[in-house]
Design a protein that fits this description.
Elements (H helix, E strand, L loop, with lengths): L2 H27 L9 E7 L4 H20 L3 E9 L5 E9 L3 H5 L4 E8 L8 E12 L14 E6 L7 H5 L3 E6 L4 E5 L5 H32 L10 E6 L5 E4 L5 E2 L2 H5 L4 H12 L15
Parallel strand pairs: 4-9
Antiparallel strand pairs: 1-3, 1-5, 2-3, 4-5, 6-7, 7-8, 9-10, 10-11
Length: 292
């Protein structure tokens, strides 16, 4: 084999290894149970009045542009306007494969340092916004009843109902053993109808319970609530006196602030996802803007 042929073969092997490495890295980054799901993003302005609500709106634009780059569809499902400008809060549905897998890297407090356009004295202002991300969960929860664990009791209806009340066991009580839920129906003359109504009520109660459990799970996934203020930030966006966006968890930073605010976030997200995948600790690094 000639040197040229050997070099070409080595280049092919190297390219194949790079492809395999990229595939394995991606699998590692998006190996979570919910990572392939769509994402529900909520941005809430911190303290700071108009400056904070404007920052929340800037973050919204940044994430919408990021989603557009990934060809994800977005829908604003709720928003509260600021008193003078911007948004107090906004919730966005982001549809796309691995939308949550990517976006979970953004959870936390984001800090902005700039010359405020709302300050007539052109002073430098620091403001915060909280970003929360949840995986979207299918709302179609079907409740299948296991009648082996449901006790059915019949009894004579009480109250108004004429002679029928005292002569037939038309009322129905259902007891769901696993949860202890008890429902009953006695308003219909037919035991069959009362059982159907009690069954509907039991299904509704079980559905309510399932949704409450789902909400508790979402709270765990969402993480502990933190205040959008000093000491809790995960990333700083400094526009004055210098240009720098710095993630305080992974340490990744760039001076191209305009690109980041225009949705160029993949490098930040990947750095954080790699930190999480390798079990890295978050050690807050004080950046220069903290000294101001």
């Amino acid at each position: 084999m000639s040197d040229a042929e050997l070099e070409a073969e080595l280049e092919r092997d190297a390219a194949a290894l790079e492809t395999d490495l990229a595939r394995e890295r991606t699998a590692l980054l998006f190996s979570g149970e919910h990572d392939d799901r769509a994402a529900i993003l909520t941005i809430s302005a911190g303290a700071g009045g108009t400056e904070a609500t404007d920052w929340a709106e800037m973050l919204l634009r940044m994430y919408l542009r990021w989603a557009e780059r990934h060809r994800f569809s977005t829908e604003i499902i709720d928003q509260q306007e600021g008193e003078q400008a911007g948004l107090k809060s906004v919730t966005v549905d982001i549809q796309g494969r691995r939308a949550y897998g990517w976006m979970r890297a953004e959870r936390g407090v984001h800090r902005l340092v700039r010359i405020s356009p709302f300050d007539s004295q052109k002073r430098r202002q620091t403001t915060f916004a909280l970003v929360e991300v949840l995986p979207e969960v299918d709302d179609d929860v079907e409740i299948e009843l296991d009648w082996d664990v449901i006790r059915v009791d019949t009894y004579r209806a009480q109250g108004a109902g004429g002679q029928h009340v005292n002569k037939t066991d038309s009322a129905v009580r259902l007891t769901h053993a696993p949860t202890g839920l008890v429902v009953q129906s006695q308003n219909e003359r037919s035991q069959t109808q009362n059982k159907e109504n009690a069954t509907k009520v039991l299904k509704a109660r079980l559905l309510e319970r399932a949704l409450e459990e789902k909400e508790a799970e979402m709270r765990i996934l969402k993480g502990e609530h933190v205040e959008a203020g000093w000491g809790n930030q995960i990333r700083s966006y400094v526009l004055h006196p210098y240009q720098m966006v710095k993630d305080l968890r992974s340490g990744y930073e760039t001076g191209n602030t305009s690109a980041v605010l225009d949705g160029d976030l993949d490098a930040f997200m990947q750095a954080e996802l790699e930190r999480l995948a390798t079990g890295g600790e978050w050690r807050v690094v004080q950046d220069e803007a903290d000294a101001s």
